[in-house]
Design a protein that fits this description.
β1 (6-19) and β2 form a beta hairpin. This protein has one helix and two strands. 24% of the residues lie in helices and 40% in strands. It has a two-stranded antiparallel sheet. The protein is α+β, with helices and mostly antiparallel strands and 68 residues long.
């Protein structure tokens, strides 16, 4: 499609077991969603997509950061 620079796909949220931290054997339930990005590298380079994806993840995990 002409004019498309980035396409994103968001999967379903799944409840999966995850360790609480690296030093503990305790497990908690985490809500995990798979997100896929595809970009036209003639326009956007990989480093820009990585920064965008990291920022998007931070906003998703901490929505109040959008306002500050």
């Amino acid at each position: 499609m002409p004019g498309e620079v980035v396409i994103g796909a968001i999967g379903r949220i799944r409840k999966l077991p995850r360790f609480i931290d690296d030093n503990s054997d305790q497990i908690k339930r985490a809500h995990i969603v798979q997100v896929l990005w595809s970009a036209d590298h003639r326009i956007i380079d990989g480093a820009t997509m990585t920064r965008f994806c990291t920022l998007w993840k931070e906003y998703l995990e901490n929505p109040f950061r959008i306002f500050f």
